[in-house]
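Human:
If only I could read backbone structure tokens as easily as an amino acid sequence. I am handing you a single protein, as its sequence and its fold in token form. I hope you can help me see how the letters and the tokens relate. Thank you; the sequence and its tokens follow:
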Amino acid sequence: MKNNSPAIECGPERPGGQGLDPNQYESGDRAILALLRDTRAADEVDLVATWRAGAYEVWSRGGMIRFKRYAEADNRLSFEIIEQIGANPIEREDPFAVATIEEELAAARMSGFATDDPNRAFIEPAALTHPCAYERIAQLFDSPRGPDLIVSPKCYGYGIQRGQHGAIDVVQSRAPLIFFGPGIRPGRHQIAARHVDIAPTIASAMRFPLRDGIGPSGASARTFLKRQDGTPLDALLDESASRPERAYLILLDGLSHTELLWQLENNRAAVPNLAMLADNGAMLAHGSIVNFPSITWPSHSTILTGAWCGHHDVVNPTFHLRELRQTVPIQGNIFDGESYVNRDVETLYEAFKRVMGADAITASIHEPQGRGADHAAFERRIVGDKARLKALTGTMADDISPRWMADDKPDMQREEVVDVRGMAQLLNLLEHCGARLPVFIAHEFVLTDGAGHDYGPHHPGLREAIVRTDRRVGRIFDELRARGAFDSTLFVLTSDHGMAAQRIELVANPAAEPARAGLKGVFAEPMIYLRDVAVEIARARDLRSIAITVLDNDHLPGGKRPPLAGAKVVLLGRDGAKIGEAITPESGRVAFATPADTRNADLTVTVEHPDYNRRRLRGDGAPMHADIRAMLYPARGHEAHA
């Protein structure tokens, strides 16, 4: 929280419609009520967050807070609560909580879901923590692609898959993290690490020079990367040791830290390569806290840039570009995702080339972020002979577990085919490069994520996926050993998010409930982009007429709001009698005659359009809607913080 050093208040860095502006207070409150009181989502939502009126807001059924973010003189961030009603939804931030399967089971018992099956360890928010919550919530609203509202479901209340992620709680937000190789101090380290720390730690281990960049507060700083929200994990680094010649980042998508610990303690013989990394490398005893939302595409870009998603701009697998009225399903497209990454951040591929030379080779193997990589299959860039790649893929095509089809899991079959193709890309790449090996490779394995979703976070099916992935990791090691490069390579093993057991019988999708309650918007779970109107009211000086202009609340690229045709505008007088009704033309403007003895504040304007949320205002422009605080917390005390 905020200390006493000089600090500068900082809200969203690049305002562009994210959060709630005054034209959205009514619809925003309606959406919060739908999520926390008026629909089934009330039993499935942990918290809802937004930016409004100069502060960040976090709402839950038990209470709410508003807080401000400050940039300290040393480029650090601090936070101050300025309002609180009831319980603070993110008061407990402990990153070391619920860090083993046994602790997950204990938390489920505390939540009223006693079980010995970790795949049914359903945990209520009161038994969890929200690590780095203030920073992770605030950063999201730095991007103009950020939402108006973001929903963090309960740990068990999101979707029809047996394992899921995306929320801000510690189970879904913790990933394993291991560094191994030259310049690394082996051992188990209890450090409150974040995924924004990975890229600068790699850069520091490689002895990259500092550069003029931007630090976590948005101010100028000396950094390893162009925009750097993280800091090197210096406790893991041995500056007296030799410098690595290259780095290999291995990402086991969706693998939870608690499951990896279980494997290391109970199944070591089946995962010898992961065990070797953990035994001889620097392993974070409680893992690392990932991006929020804790979802693949934004999390991978955070790992590869050292910046939160509110700064690299890949804020969600699907996000909405307000100025273009365009919804971008970046995960659905798969290809060409690099074009959506903010140019004010730098990827590790770009940093390696900047430091080690333009002819240094970098590679992204099925990694969802590949900007700057020479080889990047998702960007249609292949280094090596394509005919040879096809042949290698064919020779490895049978390396698929029969379990997936026996269990009627065809998606798992396809996931493992992806990993096979990735290994073929690696072999082809190494053959092509010869003695001039790539200086940086980021290699994504998807099988663990698919198994976590389909089977559950701790199911035998997931454990088979880990074993099979471990063998492929071993093949990587063997290939580098054969080229005399293993001992000079820095290896980093992590994931992009955790994985939590789901109550699939709920068929829960809480972020979509406001749409079912009649709210208009783009619902890109877990984000909500509301579709609202701006209303301009001008009363004549003699009070005998009033002009009302209805505009789309979202700006066009030039900064203007376009007029909205087809909106029904109704004007009511002091006694509620209708004065007039009209449909807006292309200009968006309608006018009515008004009684000169009626004050502006005694007039009521309602605006409705089939594609936008309704507005209800007084003739003086003041909004007319219920007090959401009184509706959600009628018996709670209100505390304003100085």
About this structure: The chain has three domains: 7-94+129-160+503-530, 174-290+347-497, 533-628. Residues 410-433 form the longest helix (24 residues). Residues 157 and 506 are 7 Å apart (CA to CA). Residues 174-290+347-497 form one domain.
